[in-house]
Amino acid sequence: MIGVSRIIVALDSERGDKLSLWLNLVDSLCGRVAGFKFGLPFLLQYGLDGLRASRLLCDNMFIADLKLADIAPIMVNTVSLISDYIDAIIAHGFTGFRGGLDRLKEYLDSISVKLIVVASMSHPGSMDVIDPSLDRIMDVILKVNPWGLVAPATRPEIISMLRSRGLKYKILSPGIGVQGAKPGDGLRSGADYEIIGRFITRAPNPIEVVDSINLEHSMILEGKN
Fold first, then answer.
1. Quick check: pTM over 0.85?
2. By CB neighbour count within 10 A (0-12 exposed, 13-18 middle, 19+ buried), where does 204 fall?
3. Rounded to whole angstroms, how far apart are CA atoms 95 and 120?
4. Which end of the chain is more exposed for a tag (fewer CB within 10 A), N or C?
5. Between the CA of residue 68 and those of 28, 112, 193, what are the distances in Å?
6. How far apart are CA 198 and CA 13, in angstroms?
């Protein structure tokens, strides 16, 4: 691996996948990537046992991608059930501040878990509902002061706009590979990390793909690409 990796691997399991597939991936990629994102399919299939087993193999950043969007007590209670095994949690910005993200952020700060807020999503439907409300979502983000934001590599202009505002938050960018963005598109637009799932996890040789992307990222950060 060259330098510090900017890859967050999305472990998007499918029905019928054996847990050993994902544990082998975590074990083999741990030293090559910045972290792993665990979505609802993984957590529903393998539960806390799967998350715990993954944690034993790797001490990188673990992100629980629950895309929380509820009242504060429900979100806090949900996080409390998995907080021993994660470093960060993803919640929706449209949930709002009062009675929602305000109390969630207070709780996360108390247990030293990072909050990542969705500013925009990588699928076309985000342009219909979420993106037109981005200014109002940004008002919420500024109030809640999260560690990071999710903004799509499939629409790099969103990343560029967020970065142009001088925001200090880390930007994590999904949509690489299957959804159409290429490795490096997010970083070129100002993202700090690229969230990459099937492009890596379903590749014949995930290590080879990760090494290639790390090299691409390194060249971008050095201004050579």
1. yes
2. exposed
3. 13
4. C
5. 30, 18, 21
6. 9
**Spatial contact of 206 and 28, defined as CB atoms under 8 Å apart:** yes
Query: Which residue out of 67, 114, 170, 182 is catalytically annotated?
Result: 67
- pLDDT tens-digit series, residues 65-87: 999 999 999 999 999 999 999 99
User: Strands, E, within the chain: which ranges?
Assistant: 7-11, 35-39, 61-68, 88-92, 114-118, 148-150, 170-173, 193-196
Q: How far apart are CA 29 and CA 55, in angstroms?
A: 13
Catalytic residue status for 143: no
Number of H helices, E strands in the chain: 9, 8
Q: From 74, 9, 73, 82, select the one nearest 43 (Cα to Cα).
A: 82
pLDDT digits (tens, 9 = 90+) for 114-171: 999 999 888 888 878 888 889 999 999 999 999 999 999 999 999 999 998 888 899 9
Encoded tokens for 138: 């940004």
- Count Cα neighbours of 59 within 13 Å in the Cβ-side half-sphere: 0
